[in-house]
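Run log // design_07
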């Protein structure tokens, strides 16, 4: 009789490098035995590109103690439900602040049209613009389902997982409300607080990586971005970044600045592959231009300095100084290009700069983006330190976390565009209404 192995015990077969860290050498990925490793894996997953449910930050909940937790249940949403705890120390699910009768009416209305209350859908405009009060916990799936998915992937031969982590999942709340800041800065020289991160989501992500470690799966974390943001027809960047740039997200459809599924009038006629076209439309193209070269092309686009950006610039300048000193100490090294030089000038984080209290939007966006993922890396490092002290498996030391990408599919925006009065025939995908960059700017200003 053929022996059938116990499926609950046989993991790791086919993983010759299961407990080893991999390195890059001569253009190849190799293990400690100098064997070339061909990674085989998948994205995990497209389901991470949008939040799962509405949530209020702890400070909002403290101001409204009568709010109750009304998160969808696992049975209601195919197992993809938020944490089973009724409240969280940092994130509390949102519910209507109206009377119980109104709550019940909303609940009945949601059920009548097939909705799960407080779940955010990719094709509905309802709650779409409540971008600060969301949660990505249990995206792409719950921890209860993680064993099933990871075991299945391991048995299918997957070795490597690209874990998609949108910046929005980490810092959707934003540093502060920019409408309030714009008024305050008229009277006070203020500095915005540092980044406000969703620690519950990071806790969930750490737990998810621990489950992946059980099946000897190697993971690298991908700061996933498509067409800038889900508010511009893609995913990744928080909604407050567009508000920071002065873009009214509710007017993108009317001005042909983006095609977004949530706000599309005819959901059944949503164009295929429109994200490629969204990259060249005004909303996404403007944000990418500001992100990569705002200091050059929008030097007057300044915003209040935040402590996150200030600390980021100080560290960056320290690195630049160290890099210059190193190259000066190497024979002929001063003529070598610096590996860390930015394409645009970096403002000095000195006393005058702090007193001015303003920074170009490029450095604000870059600083918060980088520091958000630096915070995630630190959380992983701190987790590993505790794990090692307890004799448990550390995510980095075991090779479960292989590293970070820098950014998924960055777009140049308007950079290096030879003529903003024309579309690039060979580079741009033209689907539906495709205004030229200049036409897009005219439409955004309300001109026909």
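design_07 sequence
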């Amino acid at each position: 009789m053929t022996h059938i192995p116990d499926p609950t015990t046989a993991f790791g077969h086919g993983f010759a490098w299961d407990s080893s860290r991999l390195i890059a050498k001569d253009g190849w990925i190799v293990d400690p035995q100098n064997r070339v490793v061909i990674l085989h894996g998948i994205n995990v997953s497209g389901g991470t590109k949008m939040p799962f449910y509405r949530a209020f930050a702890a400070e909002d909940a403290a101001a409204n103690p009568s709010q109750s937790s009304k998160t969808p249940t696992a049975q209601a949403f195919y197992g993809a439900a938020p944490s089973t705890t009724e409240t969280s120390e940092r994130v509390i699910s949102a519910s209507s602040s109206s009377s119980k009768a109104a709550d019940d009416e909303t609940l009945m209305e949601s059920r009548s049209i097939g909705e799960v209350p407080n779940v955010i859908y990719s094709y509905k405009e309802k709650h779409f613009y409540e971008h600060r009060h969301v949660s990505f916990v249990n995206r792409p799936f719950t921890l209860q389902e993680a064993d099933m998915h990871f075991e299945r992937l391991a048995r299918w031969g997957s070795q490597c997982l690209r874990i998609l982590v949108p910046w929005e999942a980490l810092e959707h709340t934003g540093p502060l409300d920019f409408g309030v800041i714009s008024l305050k800065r008229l009277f006070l020289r203020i500095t915005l607080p540092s980044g406000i991160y969703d620690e519950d989501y990071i806790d969930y992500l750490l737990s998810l990586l621990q489950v992946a470690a059980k099946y000897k799966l190697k993971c690298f974390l991908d700061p996933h971005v498509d067409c800038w943001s889900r508010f511009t027809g893609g995913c990744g960047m928080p909604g407050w970044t567009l508000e920071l740039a002065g873009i009214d997200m509710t007017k993108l459809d009317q001005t042909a600045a983006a095609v977004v599924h949530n706000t599309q009038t005819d959901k059944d006629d949503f164009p295929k592959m429109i994200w490629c076209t969204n990259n060249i439309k005004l909303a996404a193209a403007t944000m990418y231009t500001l992100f990569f070269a705002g200091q050059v092309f929008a030097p007057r686009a300044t915003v209040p300095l935040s402590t996150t950006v200030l600390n980021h610039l100080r560290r960056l300048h320290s690195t630049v100084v160290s890099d210059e000193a190193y190259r000066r100490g190497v024979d002929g090294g001063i003529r070598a290009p610096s590996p860390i030089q930015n394409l645009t000038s970096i403002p000095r984080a000195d006393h005058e700069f702090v007193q001015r209290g303003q920074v170009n939007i490029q450095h604000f966006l870059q600083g918060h983006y980088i520091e958000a993922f630096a915070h995630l890396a630190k959380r992983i490092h701190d987790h590993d330190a505790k794990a090692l002290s307890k004799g448990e498996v550390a995510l980095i030391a075991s090779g479960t976390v292989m590293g970070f990408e820098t950014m998924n599919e960055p777009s140049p925006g308007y950079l290096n565009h030879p003529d903003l009065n024309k579309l690039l025939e060979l580079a741009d995908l033209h689907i539906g209404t495709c205004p030229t960059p200049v036409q897009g700017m005219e439409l955004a200003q309300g001109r026909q």
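The CA atoms of residues 231 and 249 lie 7 Å apart.
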